[in-house]
Amino acid sequence: MATRSEIPGARFVDPAVLARIGNLDLVAKSVVDGLINGTHRSPFFGASVDFAEHRGYVAGDDIRRVDWRVYARTDKYYIKEFEADSNANFSVLLDISKSMAFGAKISKLDYGKTLAACLSYLANNQRDRVGLVTFDEDIVNHIPPSAKHLDVVLHTLDKVQAVRPGRLGPPLRKLAEFFGRRGILVVISDFYEEPDEIFDAVGPIRHRGNDVVLFHVLDPAEIDFSFVEPSSFEDLETGDQIPIVPDALAKQYQALIGAHIETLAQRASQQNVDYMLLNTGMPLDYALFRFLSMRERLASRR
Amino acid sequence: MSFLAPLFFLGLAALAVPVLIHLTQRERKTVVEFPSLMFLRKIPYESVQRRRIRDWLLLALRLAALAMIVAAFARPFLRGSQLAAAPGGARDIVVLLDRSYSMGFGDMWTRAQRAAAQAIGDTTPADRISVVLFADGAEVALRSTPDRSRAVAEINAAAPGPGATKYGPAIKLAGSMLSESLLPKREVILVSDFQRGGWQPDDTLRLPGGTLLTPVAVAPGDGVNLALAPVTLHRQSAQGQERVGVTAGVLNRSATAVNDVGLQLEIEGRVLQTLKVSLAPNASASVAFTPVAVAAVNTHAAIRISDEPKGSSPRTVGGQLTGGGEPSGSPKADALPRDNVFYFVLSPSAPVPVMVVGQSGRSDASLYLARALDIGDAPRFESSSQAADALGAEVLAKSRLLILNDVSVPEPLAQRLTAFVEGGGGLLLAAGPRATWPGSRTAWLPASLENTIDRTRGAPAKLSAIDYGHVVFEPFRAPRSGDFAAARFYSYRGLKAAKDATVLARFDTGEPALVERTPGRGHAIVFASTLDLSWNDLPLKPVFLPFIHQLGRRLSGYKEQPAWLTVGQVLDVGAAEAAAGATLGASSGPASRTVLAPSGQRRDLAPAVAAPGAPPSATSAALELVEQGFYEVRGSGRDAGPVIVAAANVSLAESNLDRMDPKELVAAVSGSGNAGSIGGQDVLPDEAQELAQTYWWYLLFAGILLLIAETVLAQRYSRAAS
């Protein structure tokens, strides 16, 4: 059940084993608790009580935020500002298009559901409001962020299925209207779209001040293209078939998917969007660990 | 190398099939679901479609197999090979060899074989030879082969049979064989003694145009030829014992007078009497043997020409010597022995037992009937009378025909009568004023008995609308062969014919007068009036006696069996069994029969398939007589039935060696057209060359072998891959 990793002291759980547990609440708890205990600190959203700076009082400021100690010393009103809000809106945007149903040991959708559950559980532990949006070519489920919605989110995650083809643009553009308040949006998808379309869709959300994180979930077979027998390949979403001799075009495919990933990473960096490629063959907590480490590193730079 | 059907090479396009299978079908046999073909579509098309052929050996095998099969269908041949071209072109030759028994005259058969072998020896390697042996029928012994030694072997293996010569079937068969020939010349070589009796001019008998008919006449040579004519049998009864007198006829077919020819009468292989006769050239004589008593049925009898007199005191019957010269021949020198014996079967005549059932105390009612039955000997009816109430099962078992002469039939008797008829017996019901039949069994009777119709006032009724096609009335069919209309009927019973019954005669009013039904294996007939003078005057008319006899023959199932048959005729075994009494006592015919041929060969005789709707008695078997001598047919099983013995003799006409001019036959059957080569070709046509070489067969065989090898190899590869 547990696999040794390259990270010293860490024991990660095989995603296929997690998928068999079925109870997302339990999965999220076991993954996240194990992870936090291992790292002792959650660097994800910062501490809401962390002091940032003092600024002068201006009319309209809440007098409850006046630092009375400074006033006692300086006889001037200063407002005490903190690093971040303690209760952020945290929403997971999960792609449930049919292509997400692909996967040999564990489907990308199951992997994404587990990831979403873990992140929601983690956020809820930090007293953030958690919400969920599932979409394919349109919005399927929309649970607004709330401190009491974790159970609803987990239940909804448990029920969703990949049945329809998907598009990133229309649902995300529609969602931009809902995420006016700054929050953290995690998009979990296989991103089978052109990079321009992906970032055109993500842009409006990002520009409203939301912190956007893209999790690019792919099956190992989609990356390695490790097929052997010449076969007809059928598009899961459109049903189109083309005859393929894998030996002949594996390298070309690998080059194309590699370029796609590279482009996404570059564009995400340019637009201050966090991007992370998740291989479903990779243990989920290992992926989380890597991601949180990256967040911590980036947060310290910002 | 040339090809007879080069268009078949279009089939080489099929060579693309294995390639396409390699390139497309293998890849398409499995479908892999993939999230998106977004990147795969970006790869240039050629790199998707170009596939690697891995199993070159398999592909090569498939291509080679297909190519060979296509080449086989194109019919390759080597044009102008040395097989072609005898001067004038290759011939398709049919050798017709007469094997009738007349060919056994002296050494004629040996000479005929030699002549046929010589004709075959004169052929070229390009010629194709067929051998047909014929007598009264024709049989292909060897069909169209260039192998001359086989043809000669077939001829040497043949022997003359007991059949008579008939040229028609042989020429017709040769014509049909040659009409399919592809060779430029067609020829029929007819080796025969050219008996005139074997040829009957027939305008429809023509060989295909251009066919050359070459007669090879084999002369009979010198020798005496005596032949026995069919015997005449005379039956006479004296002191309650039946004796049969045999009169035999003998013919001298040669131009030499013969003297003191011994004629033996053999009974069961024992010579009983020997008579001597002298014959002038081309004369005939008959001898009458002393009548012999015949105790057992199916007694084997024969008349044989013998030069060694046997018996106690041979008598000499003088033949008429008309030639004037000294008799120089001797039966020892008879060159054609097959016609020196005549087989026949002797059986004591079996009277047909008829039971006339009348009212007790009214014997005069059956007077005319009994008198009519007592006359005649073909068959002889042995009638007896019985009162209806005394009619028991044992009486029925001894009768083959039962006549109910105006009697009332109670239910138990009706039940016994029903079983009697269905078991093969015959029933004639004469319906007078006292005749009744149980109402519960009315449906079984050919016609139900209705009220009496009185025609004493006014004109009496007459018989009309008679079915002359029926066996009963068939002898009266010809004009002045009997006038039924002369009989006057003053009263008769109304009859209502059953649905499956046949009305054989009607009164002038249209009402049925004579109705027949065939329940089971027997026959039942209802006559609407009496058989005495009480209701009609039919017994006083000349047609009464033959009418009663015809009714008796029909109802008793009597069929006269000939004492002998001729080779080539067919014996109706079922009819012979019926005549021998098999219909009574046995519920059905024997399940299987075994035939013992004169040669001693034993074989099973399959029953013929009955026609749909035919009565069970119609199921019979036919036996073709192909040998000279006695055939025995025995049934097997519990109901084996009687043993049938049939004597088969050679045709007397065949012993007449009068010859015809072969040119007459050639002129009659040769088709119009040139007897030379077709189209003046000096070489074989392409079709014939191809037919002679038959390379296509080897190519097809090789193609099939390659396909088998490919299958085995593909299975091994498949196992290795899995």
List the helices and strands and how they pair.
The complex is a heterodimer of chains A (302) and B (722).
Chain A (H helix, E strand, L loop, with lengths): L1 E3 L6 E3 L1 H7 L2 H16 L11 E6 L11 H7 L3 E5 L6 E7 L12 H18 L3 E7 L3 E8 L3 H10 L9 H7 L7 E7 L5 H13 L3 E8 L1 H5 L6 E5 L5 E4 L1 H25 L3 E6 L4 H18 L1
Parallel strand pairs in A: 5-6, 5-8, 8-9, 9-12
Antiparallel strand pairs in A: 1-2, 3-4, 6-7, 10-11
Chain B lengths: L1 E2 L12 H13 L2 E4 L10 H5 L6 H18 L2 E2 L13 E8 L9 H14 L6 E7 L3 E8 L2 H10 L9 H13 L5 E8 L18 E7 L8 E13 L2 E12 L5 E10 L2 E10 L4 E5 L3 E2 L5 E8 L8 E3 L23 E6 L5 E7 L8 H8 L6 E7 L5 H6 L2 E5 L5 H12 L3 E5 L16 E8 L8 E2 L26 E7 L4 E6 L4 E6 L5 E5 L16 H13 L8 E2 L3 E3 H7 L12 E5 L5 E4 L16 E3 L4 E8 L7 E6 L12 H8 L16 H8 L1 H27 L1
Parallel strand pairs in B: 4-5, 4-7, 7-8, 12-16, 18-19, 18-20, 20-21, 21-27, 28-34
Antiparallel strand pairs in B: 1-3, 5-6, 9-10, 10-13, 10-14, 11-12, 11-15, 15-17, 22-24, 23-25, 25-26, 26-27, 29-32, 30-31, 30-33, 33-34
